[in-house]
Amino acid sequence: MNRFTTLLYLIVFMIIFADQPAISGDKSLILFSDYAVYKYDDGSDKCYVEIFYNLLRNDLKYYPDSSGFSAIMDFKLVLGDSSGNPLDSLTWKAGSRIKSLSVLEDSDYLISDVFGELFEPGSYTISLSVTNDGNVGWNSFNLDVPSPEETALTVSSIEWAYEIKADSAGKLLKNGYRVLPNASGRFQQEDNIIYLYAEAYNIDVSPDADSAYNVTMEIYNSEGDLYKTIKPVNYIKPGKSAVIATGFSIAAFEGGMYKMKLILNDGERTAGTEKSFSVIPSAEKTRQKIMQSILSDYPGASGIQNEEQARKFRDDLIYIATGEELKLYDSLNLQGKENFRKEFWETRDIDPTTAVNEYQLEHYRRLKYVEEHYSRHGGMIAGWKTDQGRVYILYGEPTEIERNQSSIETRSWEKWWYHGLEGGVYFIFVDYEDTDSYELIHSTKQNEIKDENWENKVKMTVYQR
Q1: Of all helices (H) and strands (E), which one includes residue 325?
Q2: How far is CA 39 from CA 120, 206, 301, 304, in A?
Q3: Which of 154, 167, 351, 363 has the fewest CB atoms found within 10 Å of its own CB?
């Protein structure tokens, strides 16, 4: 096989002006790659194969240059036979230039590229790697190239895309369309629309044939069951071949893996192709599901309907409500307590524009955690009533925990660090009775218990309560 033709279409880089120092990722690069096979009308039995990839721009390391900042990427593509034995390889460099490092705050911005070559029918392996300042990304896949059909109705492989727009010039152009590839096959629910590009060949354009062909899309879930059928669409035949550039909504899809079957009907003839994709639930829906799961364990969290729920709701708030709020709550009747509950969370909602109250979600996540990890004596002592439970509810997950087992000289004790609080604080917990019940004896945080002599209390020779 001849060495690959270098058909590189580098995406236009976003440019914003600002003066900032260079930054680096120091991590592995996320690289997605995929391919599509198309018929090539040159009289040979070869097919045209396009290989495309996506990189996250903010994974790259940028250095100052004369007009802003730039990142250099070194690519290597290795072509192998069906067993992975190398047949050929290609290396090249690509660059990304920005005017300001502030654009790297856009964590979803992709660098995309596509290149193509004629392939003999057969099975191959493709390995693609990219290196940027020592950081490496790697991806591989099997490439199956079928023998081109001369007369039978056929459909090419499918290329998933983030966007398809009619265009006559520019990057990533294909048969009058600019196709921004999605090499991962993963779509966020917020994307709303999945786009796809394919081509149909050997359409019947004889005088007696129908003037239109029909395209149907069937979606199957991970269990292989039909999940959704996209309403069939008729297209006027442009000639013996046609471009299928379309899409469908995933706004109502559940998160998970799917397979799409594209079926083309031309009179009595039928052809099809299929490709898998996945839908990642929106962050909002994910938070809602988490919220529902957590709140189901807390009667009264979503609504106070009886005195038992009112009592348990008060326990939920014991560390985060003020003394005046708790006093007011105790003075209210049942309906008043329900109104208090609504107003309590509304006033603490971090982002009222979302359906989920993030503050409430985090609080109940902490409550659930302490009940699972700090309840004592078979649940007779609730997790929230322990010192460790209280600290966790108030301040969240410690940055670092130092655990010290009991010895001849010392009792079991733990040191919880919170590096983000007040410039860095810690809490000292001691297990006096060796029952896994830890008591807070000292903290450097303001308004917490302090005992500069805490190290003596850890020693086995001293027993103080």
Answers
A1: helix 323-331
A2: 12, 21, 60, 66
A3: 351
Q: Compute the Cα dihedral for 128, 133, 136, 137 and give only its sign.
A: negative
Overall size of the chain counted in residues? 465
The continuous run of DSSP H or E covering 426 comes out as strand 425-431
Structure tokens at 454: 């805490």
Q: Which two tokens stand for residue 386?
A: 């322990």
CA–CA gap between residue 437 and residue 367 (Å, rounded): 18
Residue 459 tokens read as 């020693």
Q: What is the pLDDT of residue 20?
A: 31
Can you tell me which residue has the tokens 């060796």? 434
Looking at the DSSP bridge assignments, the partners of residue 41 are none
172: which residues sit within 8 A by CB, 6+ positions away? 9, 11, 112, 114, 178, 179, 180, 181
Contact indicator for 159, 89 with CB cutoff of 8 Å: no
- Reported pTM: 0.62
Residues 87 and 85: their CA atoms lie apart, in Å, by 7
